[in-house]
Amino acid sequence: MMTDSLTLLSDLIRQARSAGADAADAVLINGTALSVSARHGKTEHLERSEGHDLGLRVFVGKRASIVSSSTLDPAHFPDLAERAVAMARVVPEDPFTGLADTWAPPAALDLDMDDPVEPSPDDLAARAIAAEDAAFAVPGVTNSEGGDASYGRNEIVLVTSAGFAGRRVGTSHSISATAVAGSGTEMQRDYDYHGTVHLSDLDDPAGIGRSAGERAVARLHPTRPATAKIPVVYDPRVAGGLIGHFASAINGASIARGTSFLKEKLHQRVFAPGISIHDDPRRVRGLRSRLFDGEGTPTKAWALIEDGILTTWLLDSRSARQLKLASTGHAARGTSGPPSPSTTNLYLAAGTLSPAELMADIKLGFYVTELIGMGINGVTGDYSRGAAGFMIRDGALAEPVAEVTVAGNLMDMFANLTPASDLRFRRGTDSPTVRIDGMTMAGA
C-alpha cells in the first residue's frame, strides 16, 4: 500500500510539472473511523466511515494554488493538475510561498503509532455500555447522556517535487461517559474521557464511567460566591487550555502579523524561573507524534519555555521566511488548505509540589474544573472565561461553584503560574494541576 500511494502521488507531481508548475507537493489522507454510542444499556448509534482525500499544491513562480479531490483515479490527474496551475497563474504573488527549504528522508525510528488490531462494533458497544453502567452505579446519578467508544486509523502520505516522500500511520482508541446527577432544575452533568494510540494503554471503561458519575454528583447544589481577587487552581483537565493559549501566542503566523501579545518576548522571561514547556513530536505512542511535518521537514523535540525563558516561535516554512528564521518543523496541513504552524505533543513540565501541597496555604481560593466560552484576546492577552468548580477553604476543596467568571491577563497569569507534580499524558496538550495567584473571580 505504501508503494502504491507513493507512486500515485509521484505521478500527480509529474502531471503538475508537465502542466507548467515550477514546484508542487501532494498529500493523501486515508481514514477509517468506527464509533458506537450506548445509552441506558442499549446501542443507540453505530457509525463507520472510510474515505480518502487528495490535495495538490502547485507553485508558479511566487504564486500558489491548492486543489483537492476525493477520487484517486490517475485518469483524472491531468485535469486536476491543469486546473491547479491555471488557478495559480491568476492569484496574487506571495513572496514567502514555496516548498520547505529543508527536508530529509523520514528517520528510521519506530514511534509505535499503529495498533494492528481493529475492534469490532460489539467490542466498542461493550466498552460504551460498561462505562455508562459504572456511572449509573454511583449513588446520586439519575440519568446519563451515554457512553461512547471509538476507533480510528489514518494514513498520511506526502510527496514533493523537491524529492521528499514520506508516509505515516496512526491509530486511536477512545472511551467517554457523561453522567447526570440530581433532578429538575438541580441537575448537574459531568464527563470523563480517555484516548490512546494503542488499546492496551486505554483506561478501563468502568473507571471512566465511575469518574464521570462521581464528578457529576460532586457538582450538585452549587453556590455563586462573591467577587474576589484570589488564587485560582486549574484542574489538569482544563489547565491544558492555558498551555494552548501560550502556543497560539507563539504561532509564527501570528508573530509575523504582529497580532500576539508575546511578539516582543523571544528570548525573554515569560514564566517564572524553573518553568518548562515542551513540544515532543517523537514521543513513542504520543497522540500527535510524527517524524516529519506537513511539509516534509524533520521534527525534533523543543523546549519552548526553558527555565521560564521563551526560546522559539512555532514555525512552518512560510512564517519562517517572513521572520527570516528557519522552520521548526511545526507545519500541519490538510488536503484543501496551505500548511500552518501547529504543536504536536505539547506539555507543561511537572513541578515538585503535590496538588494538596500546592493548595495547602490557600485560605480562600477557587478550583476550576470546567471552562466556558472563549474570551481570549490574542493581541492584548486579556483573559475572561466562564467557569465552574469548587471553592478552596483552608487548603481543601469545599462547596461546588457555578456561574462565575475567572479573569486576568495571560502575561500576568503566566508569570504567576506554579505547576504541581501530577502531570499525565492524556490529551495531546497536557498540564499538571496549576495555581495562579492574583486572579479575579467574578460572582454574585
From TrEMBL:
<protein>
    <submittedName>
        <fullName>Modulator protein</fullName>
    </submittedName>
</protein>
<dbReference type="InterPro" id="IPR047657">
    <property type="entry name" value="PmbA"/>
</dbReference>
<feature type="domain" description="Metalloprotease TldD/E central">
    <location>
        <begin position="115"/>
        <end position="220"/>
    </location>
</feature>
<dbReference type="Pfam" id="PF19290">
    <property type="entry name" value="PmbA_TldD_2nd"/>
</dbReference>
<dbReference type="GO" id="GO:0006508">
    <property type="term" value="P:proteolysis"/>
</dbReference>
<comment type="similarity">
    <text>Belongs to the peptidase U62 family.</text>
</comment>
<dbReference type="InterPro" id="IPR036059">
    <property type="entry name" value="TldD/PmbA_sf"/>
</dbReference>
<dbReference type="InterPro" id="IPR045569">
    <property type="entry name" value="Metalloprtase-TldD/E_C"/>
</dbReference>
<dbReference type="InterPro" id="IPR045570">
    <property type="entry name" value="Metalloprtase-TldD/E_cen_dom"/>
</dbReference>
<dbReference type="InterPro" id="IPR002510">
    <property type="entry name" value="Metalloprtase-TldD/E_N"/>
</dbReference>
<feature type="domain" description="Metalloprotease TldD/E N-terminal">
    <location>
        <begin position="24"/>
        <end position="88"/>
    </location>
</feature>
<dbReference type="Pfam" id="PF01523">
    <property type="entry name" value="PmbA_TldD_1st"/>
</dbReference>
<feature type="domain" description="Metalloprotease TldD/E C-terminal">
    <location>
        <begin position="228"/>
        <end position="443"/>
    </location>
</feature>
<dbReference type="GO" id="GO:0008237">
    <property type="term" value="F:metallopeptidase activity"/>
</dbReference>
<dbReference type="Pfam" id="PF19289">
    <property type="entry name" value="PmbA_TldD_3rd"/>
</dbReference>
<dbReference type="GO" id="GO:0005829">
    <property type="term" value="C:cytosol"/>
</dbReference>
<dbReference type="InterPro" id="IPR035068">
    <property type="entry name" value="TldD/PmbA_N"/>
</dbReference>
